[in-house]
Amino acid sequence: MESGMISxxxxxxxSQAYFLTHLHADHTAGLSAAWRRGPLFCSRLTGKxxxxxxxxxxxxxxxxxxxxxxxxxxxxxPSSGSPTDFVFKAIDAQHCPGAVMYLFRGDFGCMLFTxxxxxxxxxxxxxxxxxxxxDALKNQTLDILHLDNTYxxxxxxxxxxxxxxxxxxxxxxxxxxHEIVIAIDSLGKEDLLLYIxxxxxxxxxxxxxxxxxxxxxxFHQNFTTxxxxxxxxxxxxxxFSNETLEALNTLRxxxxxxxxxxxxxxEASKGSGNIFGCSASGAKKxxxxxxxxxxxxxxxxxxxxxxxIFVVPYSDHSxxxxxxxxxxxLRPVNIRGIVSSKKYCIDPHYYFDHLCxxxxxxxxxxQKLEHEEGMDRAEVADIEPVAEGNSPVVGRKRKLDQIxxxxxxxxxxxxxxxxxxxxxxxxxxxxx
Length: 432
Prior knowledge:
Blueprint: E1 6-8, E2 17-19, H1 25-28, E3 40-43, H2 44-53, E4 62-65, E5 70-76, E6 83-92, E7 100-106, E8 109-113, H3 124-137, E9 144-147, H4 161-173, E10 179-184, H5 190-200, E11 204-205, H6 208-216, E12 223-224, E13 232-236, H7 242-249, E14 254-259, H8 262-270, H9 280-288, E15 303-304, E16 309-312, H10 320-330, E17 334-337, H11 349-352, H12 358-381, H13 392-400, E18 402-405, E19 408-411, H14 412-420
Parallel strand pairs: 1-2, 2-3, 3-4, 8-9, 9-17, 10-13, 10-14, 11-12, 14-16
Antiparallel strand pairs: 5-6, 6-7, 7-8, 15-16, 18-19
Helix pairs in contact: 4-5
GO molecular function, one term: damaged DNA binding
Domain DNA repair metallo-beta-lactamase: 221-339
Keywords: DNA damage, DNA recombination, DNA repair, Endonuclease, Exonuclease, Hydrolase, Nuclease, Nucleus
């Protein structure tokens, strides 16, 4: 797709249409209530939350995208000035409320932008996402995959969020005389907080702006802004530090829980570290504590970081094995990581280059051919023989004997024969 047509999670001038994957701050940088640059496409739930995050934003610019439905859009080619039509589909990213991936298809090919996503192999949401993706691709080649590569490294191996949520509840129940503070963002981890609330039959304190989000999401009974009603509080992640926990412990016994993959990433990039803003004394306690484990070596279990802080691998981003399964499913020709500014992030080509390239386009065509050959044999078996020259099978099979491959009419038998020999076929190579 030409530049100057669409932007995804980027809000500078120069595009004709803008797509928002979700409302986390690193994806809305540059977006504000004063933004007026063009139509803004987002999921229905994100649109509902948008005016809360950006009061006064021009709602006439919003274009609500229903998840799992094809939408069409016509823009103007910056180079030729002619109309360019394409279709797109939003797919649940399983990241935070309203988060979606965008699949684009048109004359430019096919591309998928994941935004942030969690591809949990054991979740029902992932099964639905797999079905929607495969149905949308219909064995067509995925030319470019723009991938959430936050934890694209084999050292990151997270359990399911359900397992991690049970670890959080275990920590809370093992400290019945302690106040509990849990670090969260302004959006996300709602399922974790609801699980804690329902399992322990308690309310959870959140700050007023967060409570407003909870009400918009329909969670009215499980949260409060009255500290006297609960010993469990969810606080902004930016205020979660060792100094905060030390100060709280001067008032009453308190432990902090960080549900995230981030501490393991920071440990991996720094070797050792001051990841919770420890004071000198706090850092020394960390070094001397026998309960401290190396985050990068225990990324599947809860870890006691120091006297006050527990780290639980509850992540809303895919870990390495989940990223690998996602790429193996899609077999893109090219892959690009959407995260490059963090020291621990790795270009996905480093580990997954063997799952990309023109060979993967051939692999997908081969899967399609094998499927169609099986269907063809089944259909022919069901047709009774008729007089020669009048067979409806002849015309149909002649039509099926050729397929489109990179816009070229290709003999099915020739292509299958060459695929079986492992031949590499260039995009523009003429085929007999």
